[in-house]
Design brief:
- The protein is 73% helix and 0% strand.
- It is built from 18 helices and no strands.
- The chain is globular and about 60 Å long.
């Protein structure tokens, strides 16, 4: 797959990626009491504990005795080697910042490539030439994105894999082949292992492809869905055999109570962060009326900007935004699911980060 980026763009994006990596490495040299604070969260230390138990040969467990599935498997497996190589827990945690630095740096490159792939023609003016670089810089260097892509959880890894899958999906739409379809399915399976609710993106991609090709390529769609299932099958089997349910125990618990009002309030706060792109207020510290007013103002601002003839015509002339539709639908499905069927409003800012990526690209 040839690069859609110009040499000048590639140079700037590599500078951004290296700066992002160095910034995460710098965080590792703080005192222990500071390493235990932001951008890492308390949930990340639960994953670190499970990764340490996995490194010790106890499987997915928080205490080495009782098994757990209340984690996302891929990031836990990636963290485990740090705890295997070092008996010093704090040193291992410092090394996880290096891994997160690599993830964010890779994300900066992938996001830039994806934005560039949406161009109808090679960069022809200053704005078009800057778009991939600006998107990459926001993702890699803004403090608001740092709070999500370097929180010690699976969020950053999942977002990068989503972008890789969308980039690959965009490529096979124009040039498909047997091995490419299998590779795409394998990528989707790895994405599901990074965060299990990404299975909804697999469904969205399959449905969008069925609609686009009007049922003619059902073998290709079946193939990548089947490969994605086979790649993620060990995790599903572990859940069913040990816990007798596909849904993790934490998800089952959080589905018992569905506080619609609180969910809508936290969702509004998350969307304010995502649509403002560079703002991060961490938790809904505003009252519900103020939160609702700010969100409506942000949505109105977006609509006013995008509906201006000069802007909308320029976007249509320079970019093909159709590959963004699966990401938009995925965000909408997540909103409905986590607001109507889930009871963990304090996690909505993390669950909705795909909307932030969509906003950054647009």
């Amino acid at each position: 797959m040839s690069s859609p980026l110009s040499p000048k763009e590639r140079t700037w994006i590599w500078v951004i990626a290296i700066a992002a990596f160095v910034a995460r490495i710098a965080l590792a040299f703080r005192a222990e009491i500071l390493v235990a604070t932001r951008p890492y969260t308390e949930d990340s230390f639960y994953i670190f504990t499970c990764a340490r138990q996995l490194a010790m040969g106890h499987g997915f467990s928080v205490d080495g005795i009782h098994p757990t599935n209340g984690i996302q498997p891929l990031i836990t497996v990636l963290y485990a080697p740090f705890f295997w190589f070092s008996d010093d827990r704090w040193l291992a945690i410092r090394w996880t910042l290096a891994l997160n630095g690599i993830i964010v740096a890779v994300g900066a490159v992938v996001l830039a490539r994806f934005v560039a792939s949406l161009r109808r023609l090679p960069a022809s003016d200053r704005i078009s030439d800057s778009a991939p670089v600006i998107a990459s810089a926001i993702w890699a260097l803004s403090t608001s994105c740092l709070a999500q892509n370097t929180n010690g959880l699976e969020t950053g890894l999942t977002l990068v894999l989503i972008l890789v899958c969308l980039l690959f999906h965009h490529a096979i739409r124009t040039e498909s082949g047997g091995w490419k379809v299998i590779g795409f399915g394998a990528l989707l399976g790895v994405l599901v292992l990074s965060r299990v609710d990404s299975v909804l993106l697999v469904v969205v991609l399959a449905v969008s492809d069925l609609v686009r090709i009007k049922g003619k390529g059902i073998k290709q769609i079946t193939a990548y869905c089947l490969v994605a299932f086979l790649v993620s099958l060990p995790w599903w089997a572990y859940n069913v055999l040990v816990f007798h349910s596909l849904m993790p125990t934490s998800g089952q618990m959080e589905s018992l109570i569905r506080p619609l009002g609180a969910n809508l309030h936290w969702l509004s706060g998350a969307l304010i962060d995502d649509l403002s792109i560079v703002y991060d207020h961490y938790a809904p510290s505003w009252s519900r009326p103020v939160t609702g007013f700010v969100l409506c103002a942000l949505i109105a601002s977006w609509l006013w900007i995008l509906r201006r003839p000069s802007i909308s015509k320029w976007i249509v002339a320079h970019y093909d935004l159709r590959p963004l539709l699966p990401l938009a639908w995925f965000g909408a499905v997540l909103m409905v699911y986590y607001v109507c069927f889930f009871g963990a409003p304090y996690m909505l800012d993390r669950y909705m980060t795909s909307v932030r990526i969509l906003a950054i690209i647009i």
